Amino acid sequence: MDQQTDVLICGAGPVGLSLATQLEVMGISSLVIDKSPQRSAKSKALVVWGRSLELLNTCMDAHDFLKAGRPVRKARFYQEGTPFAEIDFTRAESEFGTGVLIPQSMTEKLLEERLLQVGGAVRRKNELVSFEQHKDQVHCVLRDAEGARKTVETKYLVGCDGAHSVVRHGLGLPFPGNRDGLRWVLADVELSGEVPEADVASFWSRLGILLLFRFGENVWRVVAEEPLASEGAPRRDPTLEEIQKHLDQRGVGNVRVSNPTWLSEFRVSERKVENYRAGNVFLAGDAAHVHSPAGGQGMNTGIQDSCNLAWKIAWQLRGTANATLLDSYSQERSQVGTMVVKTTSHMTRIATTESRLLQSVRNAVAKIALHFEWVQGKVRQNLAEYTVAYRDSPLNGSDSRSGRASLKCGDRVPNIRWRDLAGEAQTLYQHLSGAKAVLLILNTRDANASEFSGQKPSRKEFPGQVTSSQRHSWVTIRLVAVDDFSVPLQGTGETQLGLNGVVLRDEIETLELGSNGWAIIRPDAYLGAAGNCEDMQAARQWLNLIATK
């Protein structure tokens, strides 16, 4: 045995780097391997959506993506060259907006720099040759560029190694699906002339769809679909002249292409494994699911796979949780993967239909629908992946809140802001960093709530509920709702013992806790359980659901 690590990650793309960075911040050792000698210089996946940025912000400053890229602000839609609708993407509820257009090469650079900063490592020119699972370890054999073999013993192996995953093949897992039967061409170019006043432009014509994405000062991604002559037709990268022809024929008038940095053909497969876990080996990203690039969901779905898996591995290795927690990774993310494959496939079929009748219906419906703000809001939320939820998760506890709340267990919890007793700004997500769950208690000195959180004056732990090994996976936050931060809190001493801060009533109302409620927020910012402080039973039940016995 040449090396030991808690987690061996196969693949140094955005998914693998995201997973490793989170684990290191959580105090879990990891090693990332990749057979490539260096990061790819290709732009590849072009957008990091808001939900991915929110989650990455718990292990790094995700505002760096906004600084390095181009925030998505506006999309415009054209029919045969005539604009008919636009979407304002600036109204998203998160501080990260809807998302940012940024080359994958830069996304990987930012992630790898942060990984190295927190003590992680990427071993390039190394590939996984084979692995064997034992009771508590996975025995892995690696090969370097010179052909030398080394062994690594790891507690968990994660395949983040793309559509042709060595890890998935090693597990012998089926990867069922099909291809869409189209030839897609891609070009990263400069555009001059009457370029669209938008970050994303979608041109619909009878000849097919053409998409433009502006990710630099004058640098655009052009994507167009063409019929595929036959399934076995050889791949051929497009020429700049062919790209110009697509623009001319599909309604992008008076625009010239030049200075290409990437010209490529790609074909779309829609495939997904059924189970993302096999013992102590996991799959994430394209190793588990591939699909149409419609909506830019692929890389983001993979990043969020890693955000779901990281804290669960950390809790398992800390001794905080039982096997139920790790089992939930596949249950939760496989359901999301199925939805993404289905949704992107549907979007692609609608966008690329050759039926004149269906094209007319599609265009007419879009013209009407996109003029309603509530429709645009749905588009923003879905694209940014703020609507991804785990309402059927085995980790969901009960909800004893009075009344019918729209925020359900398994839903994303907004990044609530408040001020601590020193007047300093605080946010919910900053307290999730390091794989911590938050027990948030609003407007109460109830003894049950105090005892559960271990914040009674006696510091007595809740008997048999929260063990010492679990303490560092929890943060308890007590807030009082106010109408105005300028109004001082009344009372001192016992009345404020354990209080963490004050929150504006309008801000906390999004959690629908009433005047005296509590919520458990998972480390990946999803609601685990909720209730009224007169009854903490649901909180006890949630902890028992995942706790080590």
Summary, kept brief:
By secondary structure, the protein is α+β, with helices and mostly antiparallel strands. It has 14 helices and 28 strands.
Secondary-structure blueprint:
Blueprint: E1 3-10, H1 14-25, E2 30-34, E3 47-49, H2 50-56, H3 63-68, E4 70-71, E5 74-79, E6 82-88, E7 99-101, H4 104-117, E8 122-124, E9 126-133, E10 138-144, E11 149-159, H5 166-171, E12 177-179, E13 182-193, E14 200-205, E15 208-214, E16 219-227, H6 240-249, E17 255-266, E18 269-272, E19 277-278, E20 281-283, E21 289-290, H7 298-318, H8 323-352, H9 356-369, H10 373-384, E22 417-420, E23 425-427, H11 428-432, E24 437-442, H12 447-453, E25 474-482, E26 501-504, H13 505-508, E27 517-521, E28 527-532, H14 537-546
Parallel strand pairs: 1-2, 1-11, 2-8, 5-14, 11-20, 24-25, 25-26
Antiparallel strand pairs: 3-7, 4-7, 5-6, 9-10, 10-11, 12-18, 13-16, 13-17, 14-15, 15-16, 18-21, 19-20, 22-23, 22-26, 24-27, 27-28
Helix pairs in contact: 1-4, 1-7, 2-7, 7-8
